[in-house]
Design brief:
Layout lengths: L3 H21 L4 H27 E4 L2 E4 L2 H18 L1 H15 L8 H13 L2 H13 L3 H21 L7 H13 L1 H4 L5 H24 L10 H9 L3
Antiparallel strand pairs: 1-2
């Protein structure tokens, strides 16, 4: 079935979110805060490990760092473009629309839960590569693995931040579904360097999500999303 991996991913997010909501309703504020910090800590170390795995290269028993200038340039250009497009506000506005549509105006954390969760499950090379393999080879293994991880992450976010996290299934479905639909066009450009750059910068953005979860809104991560496009483009320079 065309797009089956993305469909499984979206369903896994909803299921994980419902489980988190079930347990979250039984937790007091102290437990929810602890869970939010736990989720943030996981994002921090996932981001750190993902970034360093792409940056550190060992050759002849010597450790070298690669991609440092690419990171600096793409983050400057990408963040400037994202701020100009005001992506953070646009995603928050979509969260406001969903909150009104599903009559959840009493949930003060709805928008924050939606934005944080959406960014966490959409950023990364697995979403792109998995969606393309789903389309071209009918191989959903990467997206199935991603689905399991996303279900656990969204379960934690829903238990700590509320039901807004469940609706991250919508941007995942739209984002990965679009990639699947455009797979024939995108696939020839996804060489090893492109994927490495996306993985490196995407991991840094996940780190930023973790910082926001633990210490409050420090990074406008949505405004930094164009970094991924500039990082992919940098592979051809």
């Amino acid at each position: 079935m065309y797009g089956l991996g993305t469909l499984i991913n979206a369903i896994a997010i909803v299921v994980g979110g419902l489980v988190g909501l079930l347990f979250g309703n039984r937790l007091n504020d102290a437990f929810r805060h602890a869970l939010m910090n736990a989720g943030g800590l996981c994002c921090l170390f996932i981001g750190i490990s993902g970034t360093l795995s792409e940056m550190i290269m060992i050759e002849n028993n010597q450790v070298h760092l690669q991609g440092t200038m690419m990171i600096v340039i793409t983050f400057v250009l990408g963040t400037l473009l994202g701020c100009w497009l005001n992506l953070q506000q646009k995603i928050e506005d979509f969260g406001i629309f969903l909150r009104k549509l599903f009559k959840a105006n009493e949930d003060s954390q709805f928008i924050n839960a939606f934005v944080v969760s959406s960014l966490t499950v959409c950023i990364g090379a697995m979403a792109i590569v998995g969606a393309i393999q789903d389309a071209l080879a009918g191989d959903i293994s990467i997206l199935v693995a991603k689905s399991i991880m996303d279900a656990v992450v969204i379960m934690i976010f829903t238990a700590s931040l509320g039901k807004g996290a469940i609706f991250s299934a919508i941007p995942v479905f739209l984002f990965q579904g679009s990639i699947t639909a455009l797979a024939v066009v995108i696939e020839p450009f996804l060489n090893e360097t492109v994927l490495s750059n996306i993985s490196m910068t995407g991991s840094m953005l996940i780190f930023c999500v973790g910082v926001n979860l633990i210490w409050g809104q420090k990074f406008p991560v949505a405004n930094m999303l164009p970094v991924l496009l500039f990082a992919a483009g940098a592979a051809f320079l």
